[in-house]
Design a protein that fits this description.
Length: about 270
């Protein structure tokens, strides 16, 4: 794990809270839906594979959405989402394991648990199809990946640079997310994915995370090698509580079949 002096204050606060959060009482046994299979189905249907994120708020969001998580997830699936990510971190993102449990019962696509897991017991909080592990937050990544797979989870391992990608690959990661947001400054730069993606083996499922807000961004990440995109704020649109989540999702999942003129909304 990198030094906390390299983290933005908001991120350091998230990590500190994660360290004190309780885990489960016994190991889970998850019957997970395959994300790679879901991505293949989306491609066959002519949709851009998008993992749409139910995120009530965040340290970088403009506001908070109070919508029912199940209604949001269903709207995202109606808009073409290939999978759903649900924040379960309560202190900084307004999430909960209960919200994920309800969403997973309601939708027929893979569901990712988005949280900040730092030790094995924290794997055992709630069933999900995928579970996020952040290289920068974890001391023994290989052990956590193995422990997650033993429970049936598909680990999504998040990296930010080439060194972290190498760490993830050495630990056996098969699904890797490249976060375009710098955890030190909280700045977003899509060139992050473009610099890391060429170093990833072809057999790795590669997901571009953060900063994807327009059809132009979608095309850019796909051209750089993204097998899927993880999109939260652009779909949730925290600044407008009445924003149409279905339409926000559709405008990104239908990008590759849409005319280039649709890029007129790139100011998002």
């Amino acid at each position: 794990m990198n030094s906390e002096t390299d983290l933005a204050p908001a991120v350091a606060s998230i990590l500190e809270a994660a360290r004190t959060r309780a885990g489960g009482d016994e190991a889970l046994d998850v019957d997970a839906q395959s994300l790679p299979d879901a991505l293949e189905r989306a491609e066959a249907d002519g949709r851009v594979p998008v993992i749409a994120e139910v995120k009530p708020t965040s340290p970088t969001a403009d506001g908070t959405r109070e919508d029912d998580p199940v209604e949001l997830a269903e709207a995202m699936v109606d808009g073409g989402a290939t999978a759903i990510s649900v924040l379960t971190e309560p202190s900084h993102f307004g999430g909960s394991p209960e919200a994920l449990e309800r969403v997973r019962e309601a939708v027929d696509v893979p569901v990712l648990r988005k949280d900040f897991v730092v030790r094995e017991a924290q794997l055992d909080v709630v069933d999900a199809d995928l579970l996020l592990l952040i290289v920068r937050f974890v001391d023994d990544l290989e052990t956590l990946i193995e422990a997650a797979r033993e429970r049936g989870f598909q680990p999504l391992v998040e990296v930010h640079d080439r060194a972290e990608l190498e760490t993830a690959l050495e630990a056996g990661a098969e699904i890797i997310g490249v976060n375009n947001r710098d955890l030190a400054k909280l700045e977003v730069d899509l060139e992050t994915f473009e610099s890391v993606a060429p170093e990833a083996p072809e057999d790795v499922t590669l997901i571009a995370e953060s900063g994807i807000s327009s059809p132009a961004d979608v095309r850019r990440m796909r051209e750089a090698g993204a097998d899927a995109l993880l999109v939260g704020s652009a779909i949730m649109d925290h600044g407008a509580a009445d924003s149409d989540v279905t339409e926000n999702t559709r405008r990104l999942t239908q990008t590759e079949s849409a005319p280039t003129a649709a890029d007129g909304d790139s100011e998002d």
